[in-house]
């Protein structure tokens, strides 16, 4: 009788508390006790922990909570309604550099801009036998967007050149300029702003012409703008499109301007040589078809290197087709070398151990090549993973190589070998500077760069950090005189003093209000910035104005 009259057992809360405590402990371990684990890995680990916690709480609610069934069903119904509403109203527009999804309303416009463009240039010259034939240029609707000039009418500032990725020397350093350090007193002056097509390409600038790559519909475009006012000068397109929810759509390599010509590499492997004044096509090659190359997962992003009479690009193919060179004037193949898979880095020129060479950071190796023949002079293994950051050449024949995704950094010494050739000797390696797709710069013997989104000063003598401070996300860094010009992932521009004893942020200015991965370009004191939606040109004040 006593058992019959006993009240039913109340809700069982302790399993829910145990699940919540276990989830918190897992997240604390991931975020605070994960050693040098990179942030994107932490984010990727957080997702299954959160999902697993949600599912386990759902199982507890339905089968082990002892709550009244009406409460259980209502709670489950509410959760399903929220999930359904979110799926119906939101979509993923991409991810941040840490793999955090960027959400937008499903009804938000995704119409790609179709700015008024000048008529296509004259017909192309005859191409070499392996050159891909030209396709006709589409006519864009006039009057869609126009450059937005600055409100003031200050006389235009004479600009310098910034002819390739990471500047004149392809090292992220701009010399001969001293910038004002307080943008509250001397803010950047907007020269022009305009909508552009999709893509992560930067600007190459020469003789008042700024050239970039954009995706417009099914056309991958090379577009030249007048630096002074942002008006379109010419455009040239190919039928090609790269798409990725995670990495974003469109071309990603920055053009290279040399000798009155502009060289561009599209995201699918189309290498163009165009006249920089008119956009007239001189030749075109499909490096993927030429070299039986493997298409990188996130699209080709290596900027062409012009050296002597050659154009060198990373193809990434087996059977000696990793790094390839074409004749600058005709597009004819000259040499092929290496068997490594493609990376997202760009070739560069340096003299190490007294030997002029082309350096290339591949998927699973870093190597030096003879510019004349492509022959591999030395090679060192590199952990296979998406590699973007450029190798940094240091004094005393040293080379600093870095990567994100937990790869960290290696310091190599390039020296003569016993057989009369060259060899790479590992001096040290560390996880204390993981450059994902930003690049590093050298100033007064110290290395500066974004370590998983946080600015770091590193002593290359021993690989130890001098300081780590300032979360700027996966942005970009230029060294201008004795200051670091940091473009944050969120679109801010920041000046940081390049000093080894402390992190000192000088000033900040908001250029954009959305994800900005494109490398900036500084031509004189004219700063060109862009993302996958718009571009802008700012005049930066000097420190004596």
Task: Please indicate the count of domains.
Answer: 2
Shape: globular
Into which percent range does the helicity of residues fall? 10-25%
Radius of gyration, rounded?
26 Å
- The CATH superfamily of the largest domain is known as YVTN repeat-like/Quinoprotein amine dehydrogenase
Side-by-side strand order of the widest sheet: 3-5-36-35-34
Q: Mean pLDDT score, rounded?
A: 87
Report the structural category.
mainly beta
How does the major sheet shape up?
A: 5 strands, antiparallel
The share of residues in extended strands comes to 35-45%
- Tell me the name of the CATH class of the largest domain: Mainly Beta
Please mark out the parts with pLDDT under 50 across 5 or more consecutive residues, or reply none: 122-146, 149-158
> Could you name the CATH topology of the largest domain?
Methylamine Dehydrogenase, Chain H
Distance between the termini: 96 Å
Under the CATH scheme, the architecture of the largest domain is 7 Propeller
